[in-house]
Structure formats: structure tokens, C-alpha cells
Amino acid sequence: MKNRAIQTGKTGIAIFFIASGALWLPAVAQGRSETYRCGNTYTDRPCQGGKPVKVDDARTEADRRASEAGTQKAEIRADQLERVRLLQEKEAYERDRRSAHEARQAAIAERQLAASDQLAQARALKLAAEPHKSSARFSGASARKPASAPDDAGGSGKKNRKPSSGSSAG
User: Fold this and answer.
1) What is the rounded distance in angstroms from the CA atom of residue 27 to the CA atom of residue 54?
2) Which end of the chain has less neighbouring CB within 10 Å, N or C?
3) Contact 43, 50 (CB under 8 A)
4) Mean pLDDT score of the chain, rounded to an integer?
């Protein structure tokens, strides 16, 4: 029984090393493979007219750290610039929206003013076209009697003015 467990364990370990080797082979091969420039693209396979390119990174660790620090600074600055751009775009959008709203309001007010002008003109034309009726109060009164003359007849249906309260009616 113990022998069988050891053999199963050895088989598992062997399978593990085979699988690990299968995974490591492409990584090792990638480090050794050549890179070819084919026009404006780069590939790991030779192509017609392609030239081999050395891609070894000969930088020192200090150079790499400086490059990464520069990249991080550039990313931070890019994020700041993006935030500024988005803020400016939002402000421009709001200005455009307000301007469009004000333009619509002005157009509505202009249409309302034009409509009220047309209505006033239509009323004026209507009044000018209709014959005016004379009111009973002013119809011919000035032609027949002077306006200052009191009405003595009393039978015309109009009431005479009463004397002021200071005088006696007796």
C-alpha cells in the first residue's frame, strides 16, 4: 500500500514537471527568438524583405527606474490634463445649452410681440372700417341745445340736478 502511494506521488510530480516544462518552453524560446521588422510592423517570423532587429534591453537598473518615474509623472500629468479638458468641455456644454435656451426664449418673445402687434393692427383696422354709433348722451345734443342750458321741460325723461345741499328747496 505504501509503495503504491509513493509511486502515485512520483507520477504526480513527473506530470507536474512535464507541464511546467511545457509552459516554460515558449518563454525560453521567446527570449532566444529573433525579431524582424517588416515594413512598419515587427514580428517573430521572417517575412519577405524583413530585417532582423536586436531587441535586447541594455539599460541599467537606474535607467529603468528613471524611465518608470518619468512615465509615472507623464501619466499623472495626462490624468490632470484630462480632468481639465473634461471640465472645460462640461463648461462649454453648459454655456451652449444656456445660449440655446436664451435664444429660444428670445425667439418666443419675438413671436409673441409680433402676434400682439398683428392683433393690435387687426383691431385698429376693424375699428376704422366700422361706422361708429353715436351715444345717446352726445347724439345731436350740441347741435340742438347749448351744453350749458338747463333742461326746463322736465318731460324729456332726464332728471334735473338737485340743488346743492346748502340751498333750501321750498
Assistant:
1) 17
2) C
3) yes
4) 78
